[in-house]
């Protein structure tokens, strides 16, 4: 039976410590799950495969740890030909490769491949996720007679929402990395939900009952950031009137989330690297090392690999942080999720502002799906909340949606600025009318405009 076969791991064949750490982290988190996971090198040798990856081949036979992936997973004697996953070796800076979207995709069932870089930055192997075994394959591998239930698409993982293929792949990766103790680097544009992913990883891990500590590295100067993270001793600087525990100590046993890690200085990066290597911190002004057991999850909206090339970020720290990298897709690449997100945000906003439930018409939903949303999920959430607050009626009205559509950039910056001003004006007018109980004279005084000016604005924005 596939799930009962031992896993295979050839980690000792690697000499690079970063790659060894990455494969070991994958082994720890993939060993006891039903998802099919493997690591394959450039020559298609199986470096690691969990027990679920095997179908009707016993990994203990014929030196399976030296088997080729096409032999073990596709039952072929020759290579598969043009394997799409090899693009992770051929294309610089590729983040992942989707190997197939229909049926089982490739002959071996490979679904997605992620590059695994060594300490020198060279991609020498890849992490492979396979499609779940088809019913035909399972009936061949497992002696069962009952039909298996159809696979379902998850729309939620914790507080994360999405049914698109990109989000399904992200959900799979989060489940994989959650039980690992390795560091995780989350990369994605602003507003894609990096902190939410970090919280989900923590809540799914065995650290869920321990602290989850968030640090915004970009908002603090270097000296203050060091004091906040590592703590300080009494008298170590002006204002240090007592010993203070750092956030690493506060997060002991749990997870610390270092947001905007790319905005830190080289000096701080060197000190953080030591914490990751030694598992201990030294308070500012102190000499005694303090042992901490913390899982580090970091995030950035910048391309750290490019910053490493530009000598703007330490390469050794990058590979320590990115043992398990995750990439969040922007909203424009997962438009299938917009309707699901809109429904969720409408319900949440109505509840927050104590309004009756609202609906969204198909025309408005279609318009929302066509918007570029450069601010990603956060921008969509704020837009829906504004629409709920500033409109009335059972159906959500989005009168300014045309101005937000993806054609707006073609009309120039002036048009974008004008639309933003109009939206702000409308919101302020509605707030003023609510504060004055609908008294237009008092609302005009509150807004510091004439009564005639207010009437004109009411007509302009359809607030009559």
UniProtKB/TrEMBL annotation:
What protein name does the entry list?
Answer: Sensory sigma-54 dependent transcriptional regulator
Which species is the source of this protein?
Answer: Nitrospira lenta
Limits of the Sigma-54 factor interaction domain: 160-389
GO terms for biological process? regulation of DNA-templated transcription
Output the PROSITE patterns linked to this UniProt entry: SIGMA54_INTERACT_1 (PS00675), SIGMA54_INTERACT_2 (PS00676), SIGMA54_INTERACT_3 (PS00688), SIGMA54_INTERACT_4 (PS50045)
Keywords from UniProt, A to Z, are:
ATP-binding, DNA-binding, Nucleotide-binding, Transcription, Transcription regulation
Q: Which SMART domains match?
A: AAA
Supply the Pfam families for this chain. AAA_lid_14 (PF25601), HTH_8 (PF02954), Sigma54_activat (PF00158)
One GO MF term? ATP binding
Entries under Gene3D superfamilies matching the protein: 1.10.8.60, Homeodomain-like, P-loop containing nucleotide triphosphate hydrolases
Source domain of life: Bacteria
Q: Which InterPro entries match?
A: AAA+_ATPase, AAA_lid_NorR, Homeodomain-like_sf, HTH_Fis, P-loop_NTPase, Sigma_54_int, Sigma_54_int_dom_ATP-bd_1, Sigma_54_int_dom_ATP-bd_2
């Amino acid at each position: 039976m596939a799930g009962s076969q031992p896993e295979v791991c050839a980690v000792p064949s690697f000499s690079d410590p970063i790659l060894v750490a990455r494969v070991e982290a994958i082994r720890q988190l993939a060993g006891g799950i039903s998802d099919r996971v493997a690591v394959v090198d450039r020559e298609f040798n199986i470096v690691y495969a969990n027990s679920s990856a095997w179908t009707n081949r016993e990994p203990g036979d014929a030196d399976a740890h030296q088997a080729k992936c096409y032999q073990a997973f596709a039952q072929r004697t020759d290579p598969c030909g043009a394997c799409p996953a090899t693009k992770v070796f051929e294309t610089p800076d590729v983040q992942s490769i989707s190997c197939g979207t229909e049926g089982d995709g490739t002959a071996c069932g490979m679904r997605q491949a992620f590059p695994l870089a060594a300490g020198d930055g060279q991609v020498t192997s890849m992490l492979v996720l396979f499609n779940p075994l088809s019913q035909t394959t399972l009936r061949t591998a497992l002696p069962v007679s009952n039909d298996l239930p159809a696979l379902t698409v998850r729309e939620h993982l914790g507080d994360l929402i999405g049914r698109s293929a990109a989000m399904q792949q992200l959900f799979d990766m989060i489940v994989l990395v959650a039980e690992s103790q390795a560091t995780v680097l989350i990369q994605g544009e602003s507003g894609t939900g990096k902190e939410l992913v970090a919280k989900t990883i923590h809540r799914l891990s065995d650290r869920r009952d321990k602290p989850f500590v968030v640090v915004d590295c970009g908002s603090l100067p270097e000296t203050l950031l060091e004091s906040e993270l590592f703590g300080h001793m009494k008298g170590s600087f002006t204002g240090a009137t007592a010993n203070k525990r750092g956030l690493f100590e506060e997060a002991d046993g749990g997870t610390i989330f270092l947001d905007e890690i790319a905005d830190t200085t080289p000096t701080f990066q060197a000190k953080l690297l030591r914490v990751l290597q030694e598992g201990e911190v030294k308070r500012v002004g102190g000499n005694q090392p303090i042992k901490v057991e913390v899982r580090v999850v970091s995030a950035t909206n910048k391309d750290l690999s490019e910053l490493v090339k530009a000598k703007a970020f330490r390469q050794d720290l990058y590979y320590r942080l990115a043992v398990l990298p995750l990439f969040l897709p922007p909203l424009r690449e997962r438009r299938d999720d917009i309707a699901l997100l809109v429904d969720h945000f409408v319900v949440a906003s109505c509840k927050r502002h104590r309004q009756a439930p609202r609906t969204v018409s198909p025309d408005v939903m279609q318009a929302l799906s066509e918007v570029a949303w450069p601010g990603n999920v956060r921008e969509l959430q704020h837009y829906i909340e504004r629409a709920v607050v500033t409109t009335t009626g059972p159906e959500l009205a989005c009168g300014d949606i045309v101005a937000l559509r993806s054609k707006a950039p073609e009309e120039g910056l002036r048009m974008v600025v004008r639309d933003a001003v109009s939206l702000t004006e409308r919101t302020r007018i509605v707030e003023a009318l609510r504060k004055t109980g609908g008294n237009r004279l008092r609302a005009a005084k509150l807004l510091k405009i004439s009564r005639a000016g207010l009437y004109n604005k009411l007509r302009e924005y359809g607030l009559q």
